[in-house]
Amino acid sequence: MAVLAVENGRRQFDYWLTVYKRTWKGSLVSSFLLPLLYLAAMGIGLGSFVDDNGTGALGGVSYLQFIAPGLLAATALQIAVAESTYPVMGGIKWHKTYFSMISTPLRPADVMYGQLAFIAFRVVTTCAVFVAVIAAFGGLKTAWGVLGLPVALLVGLAVSAPVCAYAATLDNDSGFAMVFRFGVIPAFLFSGAFFPVSQLPNWIEWLAYLSPLWHGVELSRDLSLGTVELLPALGNLAYLSAWFVVGTWLAVRALTRRLIS
Amino acid sequence: MATLTARVIPLPIKPGNGRTLVERNFLVYRRSWIVFVSGFFEPVFYLLSIGIGVAQLVGDFTLADGTKIGYAAFVAPAMLASSAMNGAIFDSTYNIFFRMKYARLYDSMLATPLRPWDVATGEVTWALLRGACYSAMFILVMLVLGLIQSWWALLALPVAVLLGYAFAGAGMALTTFMRSWQDFEFVQLATMPMFLFSATFYPVETYPGYIRWLVEITPLYQGVALERALTTGAVSWTLLINALYLAVMGTAGMYVASRRLGKLLLK
């Protein structure tokens, strides 16, 4: 049975990969170029001013080395959410591909697993390019920073599963504007990618701790700077995994209700 | 026959029925007002994050003329200009493309006495009204946070609208050339680098010679320079050139857009 589930999920992944093979050029700018431009503008341009002002607040590392691992995790978040919103709604409402899929032996759960597998693929490929560029710019302080890539994958899965669940319940796409404006953008800006969250007012600092991105940023940065402590790191991992597991359960349930009713 | 011809042939530079389209958009958005209101938060989040969080890392800036300025006061006018650009571009590209190609809205509109010029002016007017609401609220937030240092800031709102006009006109003209959603990557390819590099986060003097020149000819830079001069009070006559640039860009865009819309929709 388990073998069957894996096989079905793999076939679904195959479908999305085939689609992507024909459309990947359209995602070059937003997936690969934009994070690099952010790195250049903030890490190098603004970074020179931060470094001139003294890097005491950052624990003595350069601004580029401070934000690069954070931007990596933040990029994973943005790719994952983008791939979990419109494509899922398209599968249900616009192209209705999900309905054709479940008229075969595939179950809604297989459809969901395939979708998540493809999102994982998108996150890993995009972030791998990003890691390579960061390393070339000197943004990783130690070679352990490369482990930011699996962290980015986990961040991507942790946010994409619950967003897929939400997308499967929506009737139109105006809910996505809310996800971006009140979820993705505040998370991107206030999860410690650009400055330590301890600078925030107390209650916002606590909101930041709830955000899965903060846990990803912490892990990714600690790995790169070589400041990992075992217990907090395990806590970050457990928190992200919980988002992924609960999110997947919710997503499968929501999609099953939506497709079979 | 003459009246029919007069209706079908677009007659530019003549105020028309654009306001009926504005009314239509207003009625539509009344039903999704939350989306409308939420648009205000995005630039404010950026302002709080960069202007307050990152500001603590950057400290004060010394401008080219030697004045010292807090980082938040430096970034805020640039955020105002960028959000005016982003809003105008979004309304005039994604929204218009969707209405033109998928909702086929303009086909039905042109079956009424509306002409392509009315569609172009109506859509741009709507984009500007919406942008003006967001800009006004943003300026209020700046005032509350103590980031406005001059009475010249009273002109910040009209300048934000002018910047919106420039980008709405250009965006709409470009939209008439778009073939599919993939082409919108080019829109991002133009707007994102401008957002990041148009002296938004650090002074233009940071760049070496020819890159600085490249930055200074971008339309967003014109808006950033204008807004920053107005809110910090460092006003000079050269700002009129920046304003003229934006006015010409918007008008040229509008002209091309209405010509092209006529060709696309009335063939």
Structure description:
The complex is a heterodimer of chains A (261) and B (267). With 261 residues, chain A is mainly alpha-helical. Chain A is built from 10 helices and no strands. The radius of gyration of chain A is 19 Å and the shape is elongated. Chain B is mainly alpha-helical. In chain B, a hairpin with a 5-residue loop joins strand 1 and strand 2. In chain B, helix 7 runs antiparallel to helix 8. The two termini of chain B are 18 Å apart. Chain B has a two-stranded antiparallel ribbon with strand order 1-2. The longest helix of chain B has 32 residues. In chain B, 73% of the residues lie in helices and 1% in strands. Chains A and B meet through helix 2 and helix 7 of A and helix 3, helix 4 and helix 9 of B.
Which structural class matches the secondary elements of chain A? mainly alpha
Taken in chain order, the helices and strands of chain B follow as HHHHEEHHHHHHHH
Distance between the termini of chain B: 18 Å
What is the number of helical segments of chain B per DSSP (H or I, 4+ residues)?
12
Biggest sheet: strand arrangement of chain B: 1-2
What low-confidence regions of chain A span 5 or more consecutive residues with pLDDT below 50? none
Question: Which two chains share the most extensive interface?
Answer: A-B, 36 and 32 residues
Largest sheet of chain A: none
Helix content of chain A: over 70%
Total count of helical runs of at least 4 residues of chain A? 10
Q: What is the gyration radius of chain A calculated from CA atoms?
A: 19 Å
Compose a concise summary of this entry.
The complex is a heterodimer of chains A (261) and B (267). Chain A is mainly alpha-helical and 261 residues long.
Short descriptors:
heterodimer, A: 261 residues, mainly alpha, 10 helices, elongated, B: 267 residues, two-stranded antiparallel sheet, 12 helices, 73% helix, globular, disordered N terminus
Architecture blueprint of SSEs:
The complex is a heterodimer of chains A (261) and B (267).
Chain A: H1 2-23, H2 28-52, H3 63-94, H4 97-102, H5 108-137, H6 148-167, H7 174-190, H8 202-210, H9 212-225, H10 230-259
Helix pairs in contact in A: 1-5, 2-3, 2-5, 3-5, 3-6, 3-7, 3-9, 5-6, 5-10, 6-9, 6-10, 9-10
Chain B: H1 2-8, H2 18-30, H3 33-38, H4 41-58, E1 61-62, E2 68-69, H5 71-102, H6 105-110, H7 116-144, H8 156-175, H9 184-197, H10 209-216, H11 219-232, H12 239-265
Antiparallel strand pairs in B: 1-2
Helix pairs in contact in B: 2-7, 4-5, 5-7, 5-8, 5-9, 5-11, 7-8, 7-12, 8-11, 8-12, 11-12
